[in-house]
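in:
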């Protein structure tokens, strides 16, 4: 490589990757709107980026969770798990209320007519099936299928068993040495996975451009304009929830830290979620941010983030509030306070039951509309723009995962505030250009 090319590459690498991805996001969107249908040919490049991210989900969950289990006891896990789940439930309930409030304020759907459509959605599992599904009948099969909750369960059980063996046997025994060897290999594997994450994110600049170009090349501006009010309402609700709940209440109010510092540390995960529409797919980036940017102890984030990517659906639940107002306006019906409370309860329970189901946003919407007696044709009407709405919901979900994780880490003194964004440095310690 010539000196000029090397210098250009160095300058390019000196730009934080989140900015490069952000530029790719904007340029890809504009290219799709201008170029139209031909740019859908770029879809395979975007799909490759998503596949690369999905490729590393299970390995990174397995390695990092085992590392966390090295320092976890069953009692500690119980305390951390209880606080984490409670925080996820509370923030989800707040999100639904915000969605309803914004929906009442903006009134999306006024002036549109219900169009008869035929939409097929999968049936949501009941809570019993969800709980039974946590325990895998075949752990290797769960890993092969990317079923995160069973992988979390088995890895935690296996990790805690190793930790108990480490305490039970003396240091000079073969069992103790074997456990130490396993943990050493796991630690090396976790570090290797974070290196792979860096490489995948570098390719992600091209992948994000391709994804956005293909998305807007397919949808076009005609698919966006009629629903601008609905999209704007959800964007406003997401902004309020992130700004109020995650930044002011959790970061400033509870942690006493700068909201800007939190956004600086979470930005890679937020942009990735906005680009690929998958909390699970973003998980490797989210875990990397928690470790390198926020300085959170591994035993906390290795549990809370995989769990959050699976059950925390703040953005999706919030959307139910906005969409319920949208559906009611389509038929000229005003939702009473009692009916809006029904939305809160239904969406909160549905977010648990549909957490691991593909297309969960549309499934939840079907359940909410059925409960309110509103036309299910609305599901078909929003399905066309759902990929755009889903990006906003997913970004909110991932931001919530990190916000709750910082809160739990604060409660259990699991944050290193000297070597992370909290220290006031201009850039997070873990941005790829520092490697």
């Amino acid at each position: 490589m010539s000196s000029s090319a090397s210098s250009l590459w160095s300058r390019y690498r000196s730009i934080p990757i989140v900015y490069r991805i952000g530029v790719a996001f904007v340029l890809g969107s504009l290219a799709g709107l201008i170029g139209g249908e031909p740019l859908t040919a770029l879809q395979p490049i975007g799909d490759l980026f998503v596949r690369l991210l999905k490729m590393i989900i299970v390995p990174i969950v397995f390695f990092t969770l085992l590392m966390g289990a090295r320092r976890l006891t069953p009692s500690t896990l119980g305390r951390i798990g209880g606080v984490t789940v409670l925080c996820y439930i509370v923030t989800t309930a707040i999100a639904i209320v915000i969605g309803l409030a914004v929906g009442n304020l903006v009134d999306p759907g006024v002036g549109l007519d219900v169009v008869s459509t035929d939409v097929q959605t999968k049936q949501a599992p009941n809570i019993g099936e969800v709980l039974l599904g946590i325990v895998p009948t075949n752990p290797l099969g769960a890993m092969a299928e990317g079923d995160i909750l069973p992988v979390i369960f088995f890895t935690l059980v296996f990790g805690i068993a190793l930790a108990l063996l480490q305490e039970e046997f003396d240091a000079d025994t073969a069992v103790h040495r074997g456990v130490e060897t396993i943990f050493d290999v796991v630690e090396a594997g976790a570090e290797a996975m974070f290196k792979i994450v860096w490489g995948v994110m570098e390719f992600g600049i091209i992948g994000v451009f391709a994804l956005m170009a293909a998305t807007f090349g397919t949808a076009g501006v005609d698919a966006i304009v009629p629903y601008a009010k609905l999209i704007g309402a959800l964007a406003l609700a997401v902004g309020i929830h992130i700004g109020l709940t995650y930044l002011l209440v959790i970061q400033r109010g509870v942690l006493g830290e700068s909201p800007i510092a939190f956004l600086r540390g979470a930005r890679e995960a937020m942009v990735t979620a906005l680009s690929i529409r998958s909390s699970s797919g973003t998980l490797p980036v989210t875990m990397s941010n928690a470790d390198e940017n926020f300085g959170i102890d591994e035993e906390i984030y290795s549990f809370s983030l995989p769990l959050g990517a699976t059950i925390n659906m703040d953005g999706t639940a919030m959307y139910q509030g906005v969409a319920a107002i949208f559906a009611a306006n389509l038929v000229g019906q005003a939702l009473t306070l009692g009916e809006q409370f029904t939305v809160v309860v239904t969406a909160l329970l549905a977010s648990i039951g549909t957490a691991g189901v593909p297309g969960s946003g549309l499934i939840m919407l079907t359940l909410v509309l059925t409960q309110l007696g509103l036309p299910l044709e609305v599901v078909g009407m929003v399905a066309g723009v759902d990929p755009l709405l889903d990006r906003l919901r997913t970004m909110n979900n991932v931001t919530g995962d990190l916000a709750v994780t910082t809160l739990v880490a604060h409660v259990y003194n699991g944050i290193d505030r000297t070597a992370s964004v909290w220290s006031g440095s201009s850039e997070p310690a873990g941005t790829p250009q520092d490697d």
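note: The CA atoms of residues 58 and 146 lie 6 Å apart.
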